[in-house]
User: Fold this.
Amino acid sequence: MKAMQRGQKNREKENWVGQTVKVKSFTPLEKTGMAFLHGELWKIKSKDQLDVDDTAIIEKVEGLTLIVKQKKS
Assistant:
């Protein structure tokens, strides 16, 4: 039963690819930060330089970390 629930949650996270998040913090040297998604704060990683209040697009979900790229205007 628990394995089924984990599988369902993983599928839900896969559906997040392409959604946007609002960056709340970002450390350029570490390329990590925090962003809001669905009313919750999530860890983010990005190769792009992000600033607070930037909008980023989810490329991938790795566990509890969102891999994002900067949204081009």
